[in-house]
Each structure stands twice: as C-alpha cells, then as structure tokens.
Amino acid sequence: MCGRYSQNVLPVIHKLMMPMLGVALALWPIITDVHAAQAGEFVVATYEGVINPVAAEYLHDALASAQSSGAHGLIVKLDTPGGLDTSMRLIVKDITGSSIPVIVFVAPSGGRAASAGVFITMAAHVAAMAPGTNIGAAHPVAMGGGEMDKMMKEKVENDSVAYIKSIAEQHGRNVSWAEDAVRKSVSVTEQEALKLKIVELIAEDIPALLKQLNGRKIAVPIGSVTLTTEAATIREFPMGVRLELLKALSDPNIAYLLMTIGTIGILAELYNPGAILPGIVGAISLILAFYSLQSLPINYAGVLLLILGIVFFILEATVTSYGLLAIGGVASMTFGSLMLIKSDAEFFQISWAVIIPVILTTATVSLFIVGMGVHAMRRPPQTGNEGMIGSIGIAKTALRPDGKLAIHGELWDAVSDAPAEPGTSAKVLRVEGLTLYVTPVLQKKEASPC
Q1: Which of 93, 155, 184, 211 is catalytic?
Q2: Looking at the structure, do residues 392 and 344 belong to the same domain, yes or no?
Q3: Catalytic site residue 115?
Q4: Residue 153 falls in the annotated catalytic set
Q5: Domain assignment of residue 18, yes or no
Q6: Nearest to 190 by CA among 106, 122, 251, 125
Q7: pLDDT grade, residue 384 (50/70/90)?
Q8: What's the number of domains the chain is made of?
Q9: Which three-class secondary structure state does DSSP give residue 335?
C-alpha cells in the first residue's frame, strides 16, 4: 500500500517543484540586487585634515547614519595629508564591513589623498578623484621618535605593504602601484591614477560623480548593489560642534599653545595664591591639552623641557641671576618645542610661526605676572596694625608723654618718647593694643625771604 502511494505521489511532487525551482532561479539576480529597484538618498561626509580619532568617529557616524536611514550609498569627500595608522585602520574596517556602497571622492581640486588617505581610498567600493588632485606617498613614517632601526623599519613597511595589497586585490585595483606607494612613496595625478586603475572615476563635483555612478554594479557583504542615481537626492552629514572642537584641539599647534597657557596659569596661581583666574584658566587649558596630546605622538622629554623653561622664567622674576635663568628658559622651551612631537610627518610638526611668538610671550608674561606678585609680597602692609607703623599723625593734645594723635582720620591714644606740642607731627613706631607709640618729627624751617 505504501509503495503504491509513493509511486503515485512522488511524480506529482516532482512536477510541482520543477516550475517553482525555475521561478526561484529566475528571480535570484533580482533578490541579490537589493537596491536596483529605485534611486534614493546619498549621504555626503566631507572631511579635510589629518586622519585621527576624530576622523574615525566622524566617518563611522556618517556611515551609521546612512545605513540607518536607508541611504543607497555614502560619499566620502576626502582631502588629507595622512595621519595615524590606528585611526586609518578603523575607517578601513568600517568601509569593508559596510552594507551599502562607500564612494571615496578625493576633492576638491588641489586636494590629495596621501599616506593614510591612500589606504582609505583604495578600500572604497568606488574610488574617484577631482581634476587637480593627487594620490600616493603612503610610506610609513616613524611615530615613536627619531628614526626607526633597520629591522623595525622593514617590519612596519612589510606590514603596510601586505595590508594595502590585500585591500587593492579585494577591489580589483592596481596591486603593483599600491606596493610602490608604500615602499617608494610614489604619487600620481588623477589622470595617471585612472590609467593605472587606482581609481575608477574622475568627476568635477558630486552631481557629476553621481551621474557617472548610475548603473554601476557593486558587491557588498549583503549581495550585489546596482546604483540608480538619476533622481538621487544628496544629504550632507555635518561634523557637528563637538567633533569640530575636538578636531581643532587635535592640532599639534593648538595642543602646544594649551599646554603652555595651562602651565603658566597654574604656576602663576601658585606664586599668587588667591588670584583664582590664572588657576581656572590654567586648569582648563591643561585638561584640554591632555586630550590633544593623547591623539598625538608625544615625546615626554619635550614636555618636561617646556615646563622647565617656564619655571626658569618664573625664577628669573624672583632670583637675581643677571639674565642666566631667562636664557636657560628660552633654550629649554626651544628644545622642548622641537622635541615635543615624535614624528617625521610634516602634518604633526609644530610651526616655527607658533613656536617663536609663544616663547617670547611666555617669557614676557611670566616675568611680568610673577614679578608683580613678588613686588606685591615685598611691599609693607597697608592695613591693620602693621600698616600703621611708619605713618605720620598730628598731635591734637600735648604729648607729655600721653596724649591724643590724629591719624588716618581717626583719634588714637598716643605715647611719645619726647614732649610734643599740639599740631606737631609724630611718626608711629609701634602699636600695642589701642595705643600708638610715637616720636616727634622735626619739620624743617622754611627759609625767610631776604
């Protein structure tokens, strides 16, 4: 019975399954082509500057916003001289794992994608450049202070080469040139980049880029994506006030200024207790400086030399050194400024246009503020019993030896060490309780006219 049932049912099931399988195979390209149905929104994230933790956070947020809003792609408008390896790798990971296409557009004209920017551009699903831009020079630089030894340099270089080759292979780009960009620091224009298959497109601006992207098929982790950009809308993703502030603080010149101001403020507060304002400004500046320095390759010997230089300036205001401490302060701050950043990369160096004014201003401000404080501490007391000593009063009654003395608008009991008539000036020698001990002041007689 069962055998007869199987012989009757199985052919029927077979006849039903074959058409369904054919329909599934026919629809498979449509199922995998997840965005081909209609055009939508493209999010544009514009970043200009050094690749650092701020850049990594901004581009991560931009990609997250694009994905959550259902955008069809993220366009990263990039202009960078390079930056930190750790931040660059975070960005590359985000791009590689993105469920929507990420288009890196090196722009505007005159911009570049150098060093870390090469890795980010090569990792994009579509790489494009504007006329008048260039890409390359991805050789790793020493971030640990001074020159790397031969073995360490070779290790870092080989690691960077392997990384960029894997990125280039994944997206079908010129692997040989990618290796040369790291080993030989080669750099090319946008036209050369297009010929060498480093980038896919050259576009004047975002609208021209979108026009060229129309119909392009891109592979992403969730399947194949065909871009439809004819009626696409553009939404700018701004960096925001917080990230703009953090980006400004990450500038080595700003970090240098904040650290100098903070140190001066704290030391000025210590030499002038109760001034309050220098301490507040100094504390805030130092905290902001610490944030800036954590995103930069810092040489702590340079930090100590900067602080030592400021201490020398302050000591110059309190110790007679005939200028030796001031000279030591200038030398210490100069060497500290040069040693502060442990990198050969140009974008991490502190400008001489900042170093010289800061050193001169620091010397002037330190000598002035601390000098005024020391001068104030050395002045005789102006109030209280101590402030009365040395003051001149007028005897209101005869001082023989007791009497009354008018001083500072007040009438005091006074004891004189010599007799004095009313109207005589008397100098306060000491104060005991509410009694002044004075001595008469002999007034010079005016010369009589001839």
Answers
A1: 155
A2: no
A3: yes
A4: no
A5: no
A6: 106
A7: low
A8: 3
A9: helix
